[in-house]
Amino acid sequence: MRLRPDENVSLTDLARGQHALVRDAAWASLTGSLYGGVILVGFALALGAGPFHIGLLAAIPLIAQAVQLPAIALVERIRQRRKIAVLVITGARVLILSLACLPFLTDTPTQLTWLVVAQFTIAALGSVGACSLNSWLHQLLPREGLGAFFAKRLFWATAVACVGTLAAGQLVDHWPFEPKVQAYSVSFAAAAVAGFVSSWYLTRVPEPQMHVPSHGSMLARLRLPFSDGNFRNFLFFMASWNVASNFAAPFLTVYLMRHLGYPLGTVTTLWVTSQVANALTLYLWGRLSDRLSNKAVLSVAMPAWFACVLAIVFTAEPQQHTFTLPLLYLLHLVMGTASGGIGLANGNIGLKLAPQGQGTAYLAAISLTGSLAGGLAPLVAGGLAQWLETAQLSIVVQWALQRPLHELSVFTFTHYEFLFVISAAMGLYVLHRLSRVQEGPEVSERVVVQQFALEAMRSVNNLSSVGGMLGNLMSFGRLFDRRLYPRAEYREEVRPSEGRA
Fold first, then answer.
1. Mind listing the pLDDT tens digit for each residue in 49-76?
2. pLDDT tens, residue by residue, 243-267
3. Rounded to whole angstroms, what are the CA distances from 89 to 77, 82, 129, 204, 210?
4. How confident is the model over 155-182, as pLDDT tens digits?
5. 215 within domain boundaries
6. Which of 365, 385, 405 is the C-terminal boundary of a domain?
7. Which residues cross the membrane (predicted)?
8. Least confident of 240-244, 302-306, 368-372
């Protein structure tokens, strides 16, 4: 197993590395699906965690991003990014394996304490690995076709994560022994094994010789991203996005399980619905980001995501009903589609705006800014949720036709629902910060929606013989093309960006 940097990286080596990166992402996502996300929240709730504990567990991965500051010094001193990434990430997965012992402890406070400590250590090691990996990939991968490559990588990662989450949820719901919390031990052990396979694939990715920094001290290089006006606007945007998205999202699982009363198996199917939509549309988002711009993708995907966050509040109004669960599936479908575009475009903008040879500092600045801002959000939200546990805000309509007086409750906000409303309101500021980022020629939201629909129609035609036959007979795609191309606005906005990555 070779972990030292390679003297030369050929096109064949690069292709092999991209192949391995896709597999690494798939196995790493399986690790995350069996250990983190919905499963971790379900485990914490099974141990008796309250809102503040949930907020703390959600904040830890973001707060741990501050470890990237010393990680930069480590990477630039050792200059062996593959070795650093493989060793620390594998170490984190050994700790995930140790979590399988927690369900066998009998003292609940001890279980929660060790869970928090282990989660922080895992996140800190992952942060060091991410710092090394980001610098490594920033130098290795060509900028042309980034959208298509990361779309493929995210597609397989998402698809495998869906299988893992469904399996873990069903395992917990149908565990035949008592106590049922011990089902999580099996899930955590499987997560660690998948993580070890991911680490092996990571060793197969070539690493070019690291560039010698062209600027002075580490602090001086860290100041460079903040002195770059456009990149500073991007950092403000990422900070606001991290705050708004992490204010309510970590509590969605708690809301579904505790407030609406759904079992973990149902919650995992909702999560998988979101991820399937994410995976099925990643390729479309990737093509759009390469053809138009990442900012244009965000200008469409983010409003849709925040609108769904707000709409969750109204799925059980005025009380839980027959259509609550179908509405939740629909909202998760739209949120998954939107989050695919958001994740892809955010990553691409960061890579594109970071100058070659300075990727470590610039990408670390993104992580540090997001962690400082977003890490506080779930902590504040958890404390607020605990304070608002018995609070209620109702809007009531009264009407009277002589006597008696009739009242109709329009909607009622309680407990976690306040967090969703606040998060959606924050989305307005996020969109304002996005408007300040310059990526290239501006593309209107209408063009993005039209192009997304066009790409979706083309995908259906390619995948379905019936769709292809109808497309040939009716030529809907051609009609859509003809409707787009004569417009001067479309010619001005799309053509200059066709040659850009």
1. 888 888 888 888 888 878 877 887 888 7
2. 998 888 888 988 998 888 899 889 9
3. 19, 11, 6, 15, 20
4. 888 889 889 999 999 999 889 888 889 9
5. yes
6. 385
7. 25-46, 52-72, 84-106, 112-133, 154-172, 184-202, 234-256, 262-285, 297-316, 328-349, 361-388, 408-431
8. 368-372
Q: Does 289 lie in the same domain as 366?
A: yes
Between CA 262 and CA 237 the distance in angstroms is: 35
DSSP string of 185-198, one letter each residue: HHHHHHHHHHHHHH
CATH number at residue 371: 1.20.1250.20
Q: Which of 343, 359, 385 is the last residue of a domain?
A: 385
The count of domains in the chain is 2
The per-residue pLDDT of the chain, averaged, comes to 79
pLDDT at 455: 52
Question: Which structural domain range is residue 474 located in?
Answer: 444-501
DSSP category for residue 6: B
DSSP output for 471-498: HHHH-HHHHHHHHHTT-HHHHHHHGGGT
DSSP 148: H
d(CA 501, CA 451): 17
SS3 for 366-384, per residue?
HHHHHHHHHCHHHHHHHHH
- Position 432 in a domain: no
